[in-house]
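hey so i finaly got around to running the thing on PH domain-containing protein from Streptomyces glaucescens. pasting the sequence first so u can double check i didnt mess up the copy paste, my clipboard has been acting weird all day
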Amino acid sequence: MTPLLLLAAEKESAEVTDWAARLAWVVGLALFVALVYWLMREGWKWRGTLQGDLPELPGAPDEPGEVRLTMSGRYHGSTTAGQWLDRIVAHGLGSRSRAELTLTDAGLDVVRPGAADFFVPAAALREARLDKGIAGKVLTEGGLLVVTWAHGGKLIDSGFRSDRAAEHNEWVDVINSMIESTTREGAER
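ok and heres what it spat out for the 3d tokens, dont ask me to read them lol
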């Protein structure tokens, strides 16, 4: 026999898979992912506890008045005004969801299927603007409708994205004109 054939005949093929080691790695990785998920969840709950001083959100009035605008789209969350990364999670404001917005003389009604609805009274509205981002969501310039409102002594920015982004400009104009007329009426009294 030639030396090459002897060499090939003597070797046994290596075991293809070490199942015990592979199983240990998979279990270890699953435990690590579960730990990270649990820590993130605890952080979310802790943030909600820290924001516990925020009062309950008002509900929509029985007689909201004439409907000025409606919009269907997404609610992307709320932050402390001017701090687009400081997400507010208390009372469900941190949960993204679909949203139906209705602007009336009484204020802004936000209906969110699968999440807590809330109402922003007209007197609490401070500003509406187009922006490019809010905690966890960054879009093109002007792709997000941000409504600033006061609640419990705190200014809050809430971000919305319409299914038809062309509606955003009209919303900014109408909300800001509502705020100006409310401010004028308050000054005249």
